[in-house]
Design a protein that fits this description.
homodimer, alpha+beta, Pnp Oxidase, Chain A, seven-stranded antiparallel beta sheet, 7 strands, 32% helix
Chain lengths: 138, 138
């Protein structure tokens, strides 16, 4: 991977997940994600629209970009898989993502509400296996 | 349109444009855009990948979201058209977009380089006619 792409993907920038909607139109939604072992991983509640759509058609894209010029952009085209995420693993992943995006204090406040007294239930893990990763500036 | 969606679309937040790539995979790219007469308009150089792809399949999405919690999100599903944008209209639109995203001083610096001494040439206008506009928070 281009080190500039790896650097940008490691910053706490919101991922913009693109997929084919159930009506055939594309969709773009902002997600928390993390790079793990060459894949981009996303934690999802069960039975979401994106989970249904990606289960049916795993063709996906994820982009991150900076908010200010010069715009640094990473565009990933990927194959997605959606699998059950047991509660304990879900807590681990969401905790890691909250820390990445909100910092220690923000994560604590977030997880206090999110975890439902330690029992958020099972969720879904969306894994994106990259086919292409492109770095650009604009 | 939900006034919360209209408000968010009027802020200088980068649009995340989703479309079907020529290989059948989705693509997401960051774009400057503006709401004009109920449509979202994007200025493009000629002969870009997104222009080709949207000419072939006009099914599109555009999302904006805030960078900090609570995340405010507008997701638009739209039909796109791509048409030639004559130089004079291109200068007008890019000037308006630069002002919207960069402010007066930033726009001046940007346009000095972009305009190629007043002759940037023709471009393309991408117009998104919304089918659905959804406001959400996360």
């Amino acid at each position: 991977m281009d080190p500039r792409a790896a650097d940008l993907l490691s910053r706490p920038l919101i991922g913009q997940l693109g997929f084919h909607g159930l009506d055939g139109y594309p969709r773009v939604i902002p997600v928390w994600f993390e790079l793990r072992g060459g894949e981009l991983v996303i934690a999802s509640p069960p039975a979401t629209y994106k989970g249904h759509a990606l289960s049916r058609d795993g063709r996906a894209a994820l982009s991150v970009s900076t908010a200010e010029r010069p715009y640094l952009i990473v565009s990933v085209v990927a194959d997605a898989t959606v699998e059950r995420l047991a509660e304990s693993e879900r807590i681990e992943l969401v905790s890691a993502l909250a820390l990445r995006y909100l910092g220690p204090d923000g994560a604590r406040l977030y997880l206090d509400v999110w975890s439902k007294e330690g029992h958020p239930g099972d969720g879904e893990l969306i894994r994106l296996a990259p086919r292409k990763i492109r770095f650009s500036t604009s």
